[in-house]
């Protein structure tokens, strides 16, 4: 990243932030939708399984010599009407009397049944033969309150459905929109920054500023840079000494750095020269008890990395005491 431009860093930071936020929001929405979906399905399944277990027909069939003959057609019809994935009625030992897949009849039920064998209804999320499912298991009780069978009703879980319930497509669309908007804003900002920074990167600009600042203060003449608006953009310590200007602040945060020519106590002739921007060589000006020799030229920056020559940024004047 050391050689990256400011706009590239902003784009990467924006993209990382948006993607991280989208991942966090998507995960939270997915988990919330999954939990709400499990809870809603579990309540519905518990109501269906309890209604089946309380049916006198089911209680009678569970105590008959051949429960499967009576209950298999019944459970298939209820399963179809209730739009469930499976309804299984089993013995207290967990042996399936009914199943959507007839091959599973007579086999051990795959799933937890402990609470139901003790007479308690419960819901669970269990991997079973139809796949991972939300299920409710309710005991079948006879007139004496004894467990004579169990009813398990369930629906398969679907990550796709959970994603749709969590509105992940909408979150994805918003994320892409923000990324596109950020890309457009970065492109506009990139064009602006390339124009005003002449294609230099932040580290290069910092080094250039430190280097130029040290050079400006090392020359024996006074040096003044005036922009097109008539403000003193830059002056070195020697110029401050010759003209009686306040010392330059150490940084822009320390105070105003661009006083106007009219705000300074300069000799009228020198103020007019700096304000006019005309080119002169060794022009004499009186500044109090000092006699100053002033030269002034347009301040033209070197060609930028963009391959174009930038417009003049003002004038640069040199002062030396005669």
UniProtKB/TrEMBL annotation:
Lipid bilayer topology: Multi-pass membrane protein
Domain PAS: 215-247
UniProt keyword Amino-acid biosynthesis present: no
Localization: Cell membrane
Listed InterPro entries: PAS, PAS-like_dom_sf, sCache_3, Sensor-like_sf
Residues passing through the membrane, by range: 12-33, 168-189
GO molecular function terms attached to this record: ATP binding; kinase activity
GO cellular component, one term: plasma membrane
Cross-referenced Gene3D superfamilies: PAS domain
PROSITE patterns (alphabetical): PAS
Highest taxon of the lineage: Bacteria
GO biological process, one term: phosphorelay signal transduction system
Predominant localisation class: membrane
Entry keyword set: ATP-binding, Cell membrane, Kinase, Membrane, Nucleotide-binding, Phosphoprotein, Transferase, Transmembrane, Transmembrane helix, Two-component regulatory system
Protein name (record): PAS domain-containing protein
